[in-house]
Amino acid sequence: YSDEAKKKAGDLLINGDPLFEIKRELDRSIVGEDRRKLVEFLVALSAVRRDSEKALGMICTSSSASGKSWSVNQILDLFPPELVLSYSRITDSALNYLGKEGLEGKILFIQEAGGGADNPQLRVVLSEHGLNLLLTIPAGDGRFTTTEVRTNGCPAFFTTTTKPLSDDELG
After folding, report:
1. Where do the H-state alpha helices sit in the chain?
2. For residue range 47-105, what is the model confidence (pLDDT) as tens digits?
3. C-beta neighbour count of 58 within 10 angstroms
4. Of 6, 45, 53, 156, which has the most beta carbons under 10 Å away?
5. Treating both helix axes as pointing N-terminal to C-terminal, what angle do 3-15 and 18-27 enclose, rounded to 10 degrees?
């Protein structure tokens, strides 16, 4: 962020009403839904805290074609693109290979709960703040060796669904 943006944000925090200003900015693209859009913004903002181990998550549940993904995307558009990981679907092992800092300070949006939001690796990432995977790989001489793959970080997390998820599905 530029020095000017940081100064403006600091002035707002000290002299203003930050939630009112955030709501006013969000009103430009999202009409109504005041509570939901503020919560969505605060969840996304939790990714950039210095203590990102406390990043938040949100499951947006509503009827089909009600604007769940659209609303989340409007919020995510306010953040630098390099912070946002937005996917329609992820495979079971995809999170294992994001690299050491792959999820640190990121916002992860899986656009439909059935698209991998029920992924067991995702549950580990959100509860343990990363993944540590031990892989068996060919050594080239007919033998095998192991290598460790680490993905650090606990992203702010969003997904959407048309059906309420049970406690069992949430992990």
Report:
1. 3-15, 18-27, 34-45, 68-76, 120-128, 167-170
2. 887 665 678 888 887 777 667 788 889 889 988 999 999 988 888 788 888 877 788 88
3. 19
4. 156
5. 120
- CA 78, CA 97: separation in Å to the nearest integer? 27
Quote the CA–CA distance of 37 and 26 in Å, as a whole number: 7
Residue identified by tokens 């343990």 is 128
pLDDT at 81: 92
Confirm if 23 and 38 have CB atoms less than 8 A apart.
yes
Q: Are 75 and 86 in contact (CB under 8 A)?
A: no
Q: Which three-class secondary structure state does DSSP give residue 30?
A: coil
Report the distance separating Cα 54 and Cα 45, nearest Å.
Answer: 11
Q: Are 157 and 108 in contact (CB under 8 A)?
A: yes
DSSP H helical segments within 46-81, as ranges?
68-76
Question: Count of alpha carbons within 13 Å of 91, Cβ hemisphere only?
Answer: 5
